[in-house]
Amino acid sequence: MIVEIEPNPNCPAVDTRVFHDLEPPRRVACVRLEREAGTTAWYEVTGWTQTGAPCPAWLRKVDDSGEGVAWLLTGGDAGLRLRPASHPCVWQLDDPSQWGEPLLIIGDLADVSCEPVSDQET
Hints:
Layout lengths: L1 E4 L8 E5 L1 E2 L4 E3 L1 E7 L2 E10 L5 E2 L1 E8 L3 E7 L5 E5 L14 E3 L2 E3 L5 E2 L9
Antiparallel strand pairs: 1-2, 3-8, 4-8, 5-6, 5-13, 6-7, 6-10, 8-9, 9-12, 10-11
């Protein structure tokens, strides 16, 4: 798996990174992250394209030479877009509750969901 994200309005660029797939990808709807120290929450996630449209977000078990075995979360050619699960709204770049990431490396499979997750389940 090769990931390279060109500069775009959604997220910072990422130089070419190479991962070795260990399992087939699966579609992901939510991810649990710690954005503030000591506080985790569920966030909806989608892939994002250079044309400014959402697309699927994919999770792959990978062998990352720097991290060992991990879970790689990728989206479109413009990375991933995230928003609080408690704040469903239209995916758009100018919403301050949303943000972009080029990719995420997840250490625990329990921190991803293929179905939307409410904040009450955190």
